[in-house]
Amino acid sequence: MSGTLPSKRTVVLDYGFGNVRSAQRALERAGAQVEITGDYDTAMAADGLLVPGVGAFAACMTGLREARGDWLVGRRLAGGRPVLGICVGMQILFARGVEHGAESAGLDEWPGTVGPLRADVVPHMGWNTVDAPADSRLFRGLPDDTRYYFVHSYAAHDWELEVTHAAMRAPTVSWTTHGSPFVAAVENGPLWATQFHPEKSGDAGAQLLTNWIETL
User: Fold this and answer.
1) In a domain, 42, yes or no
2) Any idea which residues are catalytic in this one (predicted)?
């Protein structure tokens, strides 16, 4: 699939948390021009911004703020510029995260709390299916039984954003179950995110990233 959409310039935000090289390779495979950078202006100018994330919610938020990533995400979204969050890069888009009893503020792009998985086996590590709505653009062309790679101990178990204006498009929310259901992916205007790792999900992940790139 490499070279399919060479005009689409994407930035993988380098703020010290995330598998930036894996994300770069996956986006290149999907056909994008990719730069890894923490430079604010370069990231603002890109067609698409990918925000990775691994580790603890609070640590990722600290790193993001130090890199002005909170401003970057907010400014891009205010201008309708696409952002894709992955793993903890998705979790920090919610209002708050709770780890080991301590609460940390997130970016608050979506209301709700990210908390510990409600499962007997934690972390959730390995391949799992996703229950995506039929109108999902992110999962377009991917069969219902497709498996994606997860590795996490926390998740958003509820979706709390309410659409109050008739002209607004309701977000497309996809779910996965590990012990109990949790949010696996969201498509909300220019802001998309996945709890799983598309860059580690083989051909399925490449197709999913291609679907995102085609919206840029």
Assistant:
1) yes
2) 87 (nucleophile), 197, 199
